[in-house]
């Protein structure tokens, strides 16, 4: 049998933390190995418990979720942990910074339990969780403030790869990109893989952040 996905839940609101833990522990393929109420405790517990996924709130005392995510999954971390950020709509820039810090994805706190569970499984599998509709609303809403003054041409990418990157950043799924470009989903996956390799990006989330930072989304 496959071992269950080990999950650490970090949220400073006890009711939310307990609710998440109860929902997660009820699944045969998931296991809550720890709970905590601040980012510093999350970093310490992750070091000891070695979870597969950390479900991380953003606003917390001692050390917020962004700082904790950076320590757990940021650039240069030798053994990064997968972090799934949970937040609310009024924390746009916090979400963006958390993704820059190394989070593998994010969900809204009012998402249904099934979406939380699927999000944990998705992140644990190594895929990025970046819901298209949430990308458009959260990242796109303040793109003008994070875009550089001049757009940068990505000469490393072929024209079609650059086109795929822009569509990823606009929040399109692989199937939507395939339909837009009239190509197969397998071809889209190949392009995505090439983009990540050429730009030295870990996953789809980093690709979105990269595109906005480089001014590739109009």
UniProtKB/TrEMBL annotation:
SUPFAM superfamilies associated with the record: C-terminal effector domain of the bipartite response regulators, CheY-like
Keyword DNA-binding among record annotations: yes
Occurrences of domain Response regulatory (ranges): 6-124
Annotated coiled-coil segments of the chain: none
One Pfam family recorded for the sequence: GerE
GO biological process: phosphorelay signal transduction system; regulation of DNA-templated transcription
Record domain HTH luxR-type: where: 150-215
Keywords: DNA-binding, Phosphoprotein, Transcription, Transcription regulation
Signal sequence segment: none
Alphabetized Gene3D superfamilies for the sequence: 3.40.50.2300
Superkingdom classification of source: Bacteria
GO molecular function, one term: DNA binding
Keyword Transcription assigned: yes
Residue numbers bearing the 4-aspartylphosphate modification: 57
PANTHER family named among the record's database cross-references: TRANSCRIPTIONAL REGULATORY PROTEIN NARL-RELATED, TWO-COMPONENT RESPONSE REGULATOR
Protein name: DNA-binding response regulator, NarL/FixJ family, contains REC and HTH domains
């Amino acid at each position: 049998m496959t071992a269950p996905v080990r999950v650490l839940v970090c949220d400073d609101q006890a009711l939310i933390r307990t609710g998440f833990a109860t929902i997660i522990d009820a699944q045969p393929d998931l296991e809550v190995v720890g709970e905590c109420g601040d980012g510093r405790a999350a970093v310490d517990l992750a070091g000891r418990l070695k979870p597969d996924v950390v479900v991380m709130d953003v606003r917390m005392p001692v050390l917020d979720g962004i700082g904790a995510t950076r320590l757990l999954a940021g650039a240069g971390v030798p053994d990064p942990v997968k972090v799934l950020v949970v937040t609310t709509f009024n924390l746009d820039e916090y979400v963006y910074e958390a993704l820059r810090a190394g989070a593998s994805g994010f969900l809204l706190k009012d998402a249904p339990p099934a979406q939380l569970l699927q999000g944990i499984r998705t992140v644990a599998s190594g895929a990025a969780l970046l819901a298209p509709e949430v990308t458009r609303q959260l990242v796109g809403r303040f793109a003008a403030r994070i875009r550089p003054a001049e757009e940068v041409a990505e000469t490393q990418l072929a024209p079609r790869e650059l086109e795929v990157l822009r569509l990823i950043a606009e929040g399109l799924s692989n199937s939507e990109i395939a339909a837009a470009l009239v190509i197969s989903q397998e071809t889209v996956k190949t392009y995505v893989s090439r983009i990540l390799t050429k730009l030295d990006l870990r996953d789809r989330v980093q690709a979105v952040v990269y595109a906005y930072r480089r001014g590739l989304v109009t």
